[in-house]
Structures are given as C-alpha cells and as structure tokens.
Amino acid sequence: AQSVSQHNHHVILSEAASLELGCNYSYGGTVNLFWYVQYPGQHLQLLLKYFSGDPLVKGIKGFEAEFIKSKFSFNLRKPSVQWSDTAEYFCAVIMDSNYQLIWGAGTKLIIKP
Amino acid sequence: SQTIHQWPATLVQPVGSPLSLECTVEGTSNPNLYWYRQAAGRGLQLLFYSVGIGQISSEVPQNLSASRPQDRQFILSSKKLLLSDSGFYLCAWSEGTNTEAFFGQGTRLTVV
C-alpha cells in the first residue's frame, strides 16, 4: 500500500543546531511532495513543495528539502534552528495513482532556548 | 486572496447528540474540499472529499457524513455522536487534485 513514513516522532534540539527530518514514501510513480508545519495553536501551513525541476527546493523561514528519487525521500533541512521553529512537521505526498494527499504521522520538533 | 473559515473552534457535545461543523472558502470557485481528522502521532486521516456541489466521496466508514450544499461550503455532520468521534477535525481546500491543500483552523470536538 502507498504510504509516507516520517522516521522520528519527536526531535529535541538546541538553538543553532542543524535539523534534518526524514520523509520516505512507498510509490514508484510520479509524485508531488510537500512539507507542512503546524505551530502551537495555529493551523497547518505549507512550508515548501516539490512538483518538478530542481530537486532542492527552498521554503519559507530558511527551510529546504531535497527530493532524492532513487531513495524515495524528501528530507527537510534547516542549517540553524531557532526556538520559534518549535512545531509539528508533516510530510505529505500526492501520488499520480490516486491524486490524494497521503500524510506522514508527523514529527514534533522542540527547540530548547 | 483565498481564505478558509471553519467553525466552531471548540465544541463539547454529549453522546448521542447531532453534529454540524461548517467550512466555507472565499476567493476561489469550484475548489476541491476536504474533511480530515488529525490524531496525535498518526498524521491526518482523510474522511471526505468533494470535487463539486453535491459530490461527496467517503474515504473511511464513519459515524459521520459530509455535504456540499454550495460551491464553497462543506459541512461535516453526524446524527448521533459517539465517544470515539472526539478529535481534531480539519477542513481544507485545493485548486485541483494534484496540488497543495490549504487548511482551516480546525475544530476540537470533545464528546462527553
């Protein structure tokens, strides 16, 4: 079955540390890829997306993600996190087989000041 | 610009009572509309989606139903709530089936 996996459910980092959140999907066809963020008490917001072209995509607030097709991965990165990055991060994938967003379970990121 | 409104933000209902959550989108026409349920540690579960007025697709069997009486209005309902219906419900819209979705603020439903 098609699925999206986020490897870490909870990540705790200190400010200025580098961040990488893993996302893998199980599907061999064409995909559109997304990272969403949900800050405490706020609605889900789109962080970045990949449809085609350069596999390294830049998002808001200094985030970036790299699509590696051979690894079925779309990992989220940020070189230096801030306390305000504390949030839950969701990876989502649209697969051309059914055109529905399939979601990962989410990763709760806590940044210690 | 497009906006999505979902209400109420929180709701406490007794078991067996009816439910009606409303979602409206402004600034676009003929959007795809979605109802999701978000459970802690489990991501988002798609409950219903609609590609047009009166067209509803259900993804999972539920004690819930959805309706789309107008182009930009999407309603989540139940005739009799169960304790297991407690959760966080999100409405979302997208311009097509192959692009990102935009979310409402969500409704925290507690069935007591």
Q: Mind explaining what this structure looks like?
A:
The complex is a heterodimer of chains A (113) and B (112). Chain A is mostly beta strands and 113 residues long. Helix content of chain A is 0%, strand content 51%. In chain A, the strands form three sheets. In chain A, strands 2, 5, 6, 10, 11 and 12 form a six-stranded mixed sheet that branches. In chain A, strands 3-9-8-7 form a four-stranded antiparallel sheet, with no helix packed on it. Chain A has a two-stranded antiparallel ribbon with strand order 1-4. The relative contact order of chain A is 0.34. The model of chain A has no long low-confidence stretch (mean pLDDT 93). Chain B is an all-beta fold and 112 residues long. Chain B is globular, with a radius of gyration of 13 Å. Chain B starts with a strand and ends with a strand. The relative contact order of chain B is 0.33. The model of chain B has no long low-confidence stretch (mean pLDDT 92). At the A-B interface, strand 6 and strand 10 of A face strand 5 and strand 10 of B.
Features of the shown structure:
heterodimer; A: 113 residues; mainly beta; six-stranded mixed β-sheet; four-stranded antiparallel β-sheet; 12 strands; B: 112 residues; seven-stranded mixed β-sheet; 0% helix
Sum this structure up briefly.
The complex is a heterodimer of chains A (113) and B (112). Chain A has strands spanning 4-5, 10-14, 19-21, 24-25, 31-38, 45-50, 56-58, 64-68, 73-78, 87-95, 101-103, 107-112.
Helix content of chain A: under 10%
Oligomer: heterodimer
Mean residue pLDDT of chain B: 92
Query: How many angstroms separate the termini of chain B?
Result: 38 Å
Sum up the overall morphology of chain A in one term: globular
Radius of gyration of chain A: 13 Å
What are the secondary-structure elements of chain A, in order, as H or E? EEEEEEEEEEEE
* N- and C-termini, Cα separation of chain A: 40 Å
- Unreliable stretches of chain A: none
> How many DSSP E strands of chain A?
12
Task: Report low-confidence residues of chain B grouped into runs of 5 or more.
Answer: none
Largest sheet of chain B: 7 strands, mixed
Structural class estimated from helices and strands of chain A: mainly beta
Number of helical segments with 4 or more residues of chain B: 0
What string gives the helices and strands of chain B in order? EEEEEEEEEEE
